[in-house]
Fold Tetraspanin.
Amino acid sequence: MGVSNNITAVVNFIALLASIPIIGAGVWLASKPDNECIHNFRWHVLVLGLLVLLVSLAGFVGAYWNKQGLLAFYLCCMAILIALLLFILLFSFIVTRPDGTYYVPGRGFKESMLDGFSPWLRNHLTASRSWNKITTCLADSDVCIRLTQDYISADQFFNSHISPLQSGCCKPPSACGYNYVNPILWINPVNPMVDSDCYLWTNEQSQLCYNCNACKAGLLGNLREEWRKANIILMVAVVVLIWVYLIACSAFKNAQTEDLFRRYKRGWV
């Protein structure tokens, strides 16, 4: 029984370590400018990571000090947390699978097309009520202002690898043919009829292209890139947690069997 509890304590310590990359991924996602403006998606991964940390700590304490009730609580809660992480992984893979970004000839960055992204993301993030709040948040951030500090000449800017969010919100669509002055100042469109966004662009710093479909698509493009990267970390962490959980279940079952055998032996004697 002591050996089984020691095994459970060790695997729970591994689970505790596995929660660290989940927390890290949650902090990284929450710190991104686009996620700062989308409160609905900001803290889910971080909260789950913290819960995995606390539950793993409870399992470690239960195994180390032979608290069977605490171990049973750990196994129940960890099963729920693993199921939630698997759901988030599967859901995020499904909604981030469509990619609306495309390369523009002669540009180092990509632009985005709103119809190319998941309908679920479009409906939940670009609805008028939600978008008004996001627009205000983006205008108050330094997402676009940073471009004027990083790029000076037109060639330097056109060959840059700016994010989909910056590409869609901080400049007019390339098809409009605006002339470059600086990354957030453009004049004299050549083809204003090409895209309705051409008429929505303004050099007003608080507006730029925040009301453009290109900006909405750029936000979805940013989210897609970030969640795809975070999913790799989450996938590895979930595999480790499932492996640890199965070992912990086996060790807990063995400890229970050994405890019953010990009690039976005492009663027989």
Notes: Residues 213-268 form the longest helix (56 residues). The two ends are 20 Å apart (CA to CA). The beta strands are 101-103, 110-112, 179-182, 185-187.
